[in-house]
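Appendix B. Raw example, untouched.
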Amino acid sequence: MSQTPHPQHTALSLAASGVPVLPLRRGKVPFGNCPACADNACGGRPNMKVPGSCRCAAPCHGWAAATTDPAVIVSPAWAAAWRQAVCVAYHPGGAGLTIVDLDDADAITWARTVLPATRRVPTTRGEHWIYRGAMTSRNKVRPGVDIKSTMAYARWLGPGTGTTAALPDAVRALAVRDPAPARRTPQALSGLLTGGQGECPHRAPAYLERGVAMAEQRITEAAGAVHATVYRTFLAVLSRHGRCGCLTDSHVARLFTAAQAKGETARHCTDAWTNARTALGM
């Protein structure tokens, strides 16, 4: 499906292939709400959960106006929008897709290092990497990288090149938000270990050693989403080894060292450890 001179023609072609589309006006942004939806009279965007869920005739509510219905695309209510449209956008999540929007050369280099190859579409400044599968959208997941899928829109820039790969866990992990930082002063490691008085589950010292070593390896081998990986690893270590008092400052220091070798700060390590303890009620 190649770009045609008139955006409406492109929209009809995309819709025929099952891709929900909408027009974009100057500035490459969606059209404003129609009079019936002005000032959130219709209930507003928070109610727009799926494309086409706004029942007004005009292309309102950004991504939620996206449709695959050709009768809507050629309707009189959309005609004025097409006359002013500069390009076509689509709702990736509605098409069962996720876009990793790479804004610059550094972001592209990062993607080539940690993400599986997939269909790529050149953009003005970078590339769209398109995967098969929908997920939560989130902007600024790392420098120069946005995720566009559900409840989002992306400009149609052509079919791109390459084979569309299945959405990998490495991309899903990018949308996982870190827990809120603990509102406390960073503590000494010994302070972070206070309170382990439960029954000891360890059959031998080697059991604990193996668990800590596996945790170090998990952090060290993290290909992306390091913040989330560190927190989840700390949570796993504490849930298994944190209640009996067997963890020592030496064990925790090893985990912190592994995390800092991946670029984490000492403060983040302390906060992640404290948040994990709080989540476990320790």
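End of appendix B.
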